[in-house]
Amino acid sequence: MIRRRKYIAFEQIVYLGIIGSFLLMIFYPLFSSPSTVELECLFKKLTHTPCPTCGMTRSFKHLIAGHLLESIRFNLFTIPIYLFYAYLAFRASIALIKKKPFTISALVAWLFFATLLLAWGWKFYMGPSYY
Question: If you ran DSSP here, which 8-state letter would residue 82 be given?
Answer without folding.
Answer: H
